[in-house]
Amino acid sequence: MIFHWGIARQIGAGTYFVPRATSRSGVSGASPVQLSYSGVLEDLERDINQMEPTRDKSLMGAAGMHFVASELSLRGLIALPTIRNTAGIDIVVVNKSGTWQANLQVKTSRSKVSFWPVGTHYEKWRGQNNFYVFVRYLSAESRFEAFLESSNRVAEQLSVRSARDKGRVKDWAPCWYFNSDPTTRPAKTYLEKEKDRLRQQWLEFGPPAKTET
Fold first, then answer.
1. Phi and psi, residue 208, nearest 5°
2. What is the pLDDT of residues 51-69, one digit of tens each?
3. What is the C-alpha separation between 151 and 125, in angstroms, rounded?
4. Does the structure show a pLDDT above 50 at 152?
5. Do residues 105 and 178 both lie within one domain?
6. In whole angstroms, what is the distance from residue 144 CA to residue 159 CA?
7. 35 with 105, same domain?
8. Are residues 137 and 67 in the same domain?
9. What is the domain range of residue 26?
């Protein structure tokens, strides 16, 4: 028998590896080594797809931030996480020539939510180069999904919500919703269009075409 390290299994906060055994004869037409590692990879992929994201808010926030930085790097941009040591800014983004810059706040949720808390300093975060990236984890697809909105539009929405709800809703806290018009109760089709718009803004985020990257 051939023993090899199998898929990682997690118990509590620890991880251990389960050895698997494969017959030396393997299967007709297949290499025993190929057969062995093929099974490991299939098991590993299945377990990763079934894995629940961490409930640690700090780690989940870090995962969302690094997801955003990774996506921007793949677009040829320089994405610099601040590691939370710069007030209001999670990621500074610039093009290679330094002629374009944007500042991002990243808000991450471990589930498929429709709103995100944004803190009480949203008015101070207004600015032409300031943006929010709202990230949520899609457990069914084992991936992150991101939406982008300008800081000015987020502040405008929250200002309306604050004037309407702050005095009559107990423990009111600023939260950003997909509905860009908080004075109405939108139809489902409208919300889907808003999600598509915000998702597309994230996918197209970067310097204008005329700006050198």
1. -55, 155
2. 788 889 889 999 999 999 9
3. 6
4. yes
5. yes
6. 28
7. no
8. yes
9. 2-50
Q: How many CB atoms lie within 10 A of CB 7?
A: 17
Say how far apart CA 143 and CA 164 lie, in whole Å.
Answer: 35
Q: Hey, what are 67's tokens?
A: 């997801």
Can you give the pLDDT at residue 99? Answer: 95
- On whether the CB atoms of residues 99 and 115 are closer than 8 A, the answer is no
What does the block give as tokens for 70?
A: 């990774």
Amino acid, single-letter form, for residue 150: S
- Distance separating alpha carbons of residues 81 and 126, to the nearest angstrom: 20
> What is the predicted pLDDT for the residue at 8?
47
What pLDDT sits at residue 9?
A: 47
CA atoms within 13 A on the CB side of 142: 8
Query: Cα 207 to chain center, whole Å?
Result: 21
Q: Residue 210 is encoded by which pair of tokens?
A: 């005329």
Residue 50 pLDDT = 61
CA–CA dist 33, 99 (Å, integer): 52
Domain count, the chain: 2
